[in-house]
Specification:
By secondary structure, this protein is an alpha+beta fold. It has 2 domains: 75 residues, ACT domain (Alpha-Beta Plaits), CATH 3.30.70; 72 residues, Alpha-Beta Plaits, CATH 3.30.70.1150. It has 4 helices and 9 strands, in the order βαββαββαββαββ. The strands form 2 sheets. Strands 5, 6, 7, 8 and 9 form a 5-stranded antiparallel β-sheet that branches. β2 and β3 form a beta hairpin. The radius of gyration is 19 Å and the shape is elongated.
Length: 163
Amino acid sequence: MKKIYSVLVENRSGVLCKVAGLFSRRCFNIDSLAVGETDDKAVSCMTIVSSGNQRTLEQIEKQLNKKLDIIKVRTFKEEQAVSRELMLLKVKYNKSNRKDIMEICDILKADIVDMSKTHLMIQICDEPRKIELLLEMLRTVSIVEVARTGTLALMKCTEGEGV
């Protein structure tokens, strides 16, 4: 099972280390971690994706709620959220596979953002499963380098929410 934790924390040094330490000490795994300031510079939002059994996922939430630097913890399942991840991918290409790479990018709505005579840099911002699909589709090509942001997620909009 996977769960997404949206954690509002005080924006100050050491908070990330404390949260990572909580996971490390209890042998909980972090599948993805993304952190950034919110509209309030004093508050950051950590989006943590973790997997495990039901008991482990409940323990993670309980332990996060105990930390003093944490303002609020919200949890949701993948299907309850809109999730996005950014990936930059550098591939080596040749005359025979360039068209195939471009078609794959077109189908998956990925952009070619840089190129040389032998390499292409591809950018995709989409759901984590589409990121994985692009990687799988390009496995036959020589992948040189990959950089990923980790998952960002917000709970889906519901009727009656103030806008």
